[in-house]
Amino acid sequence: MYLLPAIDILDGRAVRLAKGDYSQVTVYNDDPVDQARKFESQGATWIHVVDLDGARTGVPENIAIVERIVRETSLSVEIGGGIRTLETLARLADIGAARMVLGTALVNDPDLARAAVERVGGDRLTAGIDAKGGEVAVSGWIEGSGVAACDLAREMGKAGFKHIVYTDIARDGMQTGLDVRAYVQMAEAFGHPVIASGGVANVSDIERLAPVASSIEGVITGRAVYEGTLTVEEGVAACAAATKE
User: Fold this and answer.
1) Out of 16, 63, 79, 133, which residue is the most buried by the measure of CB atoms under 10 Å away?
2) What is the H or E stretch that residue 112 is in?
3) Separation CA 1–CA 235 (nearest Å)
């Protein structure tokens, strides 16, 4: 289990949304690259980057920033937001992104999901499943899909994806704690451990995952590390401890 501090990029700045609402934006750093360096200095080895502009428009708009993070830090970068063509996928792979997250495309273009596995391999792909009430949300969380999250996870496991990020939209950015049972259910459906996202408030939330650590690959945290209720150092240590238990 490892920690993935989140950097959500909107209009070139590191921000967080509350419940995925683009009208509820908090800016934490005008320079996402500087933020990445800070996370690295605090002990992070991975970061989870979301191109919020791309998630909304369907066209990644912050690839240059991601490229700088890859070039100027030693962090492994997982990047999502607006990846809806093989060309975009290949471009991100070429600049050195460790993993690319497909979200909306999993629902709207299942052929792309399968082609992506063939193009870059399942280990460099993450299925990004964002759900509210168990239903997958798409287009930057703006639209419901009518697809059950567990069903989509099952399909992506069969398609060859090796990683999955599951986000509970109702909890994201709200620091309300993790729904441990939901992550276990998703891992069972997917066939591999999941990356938990949405609701981490403090180190105790990560510690609660220790009993089900075999179902959890990593933990994404955003607002908690920006507002100081969880430090990166605490998160990294808690993830390591959970893995050992």
Assistant:
1) 79
2) helix 110-120
3) 10
Per-residue pLDDT reduced to its tens digit, 32-52: 999 999 999 999 999 999 999
Contact present, 62 and 9 (Cβ < 8 Å)? yes
Of 47, 3, 42, the residue nearest 240 (C-alpha) = 3
**Per annotation, catalytic residue among 8, 51, 53, 205:** 8
Q: 173 and 153 in contact (C-beta within 8 Å)? A: no
* Separation of alpha carbons 22 and 20, rounded Å: 6
Choose, from 53, 130, 168, 205, the residue flagged as catalytic: 130
User: DSSP assignment of 25-90, as one string?
Assistant: EEEEES-HHHHHHHHHHTT-SEEEEEEHHHHHHSS---HHHHHHHHHHS--EEEEESS--SHHHHH
Of the candidate ranges 71-80, 118-127, 173-182, the one whose mean pLDDT is the lowest: 173-182
Confidence check: pLDDT of 214 > 90? yes
Amino acid at site 163:
H
Distance CA 60, CA 103 (A): 13
How far CA 27 is from CA of 15, 133, 226, in Å, comes to: 4, 28, 10
> What's the mean pLDDT in 72-84?
95
Encoded amino acid at 108, one letter: N
Indicate if 130 belongs to the active site: yes
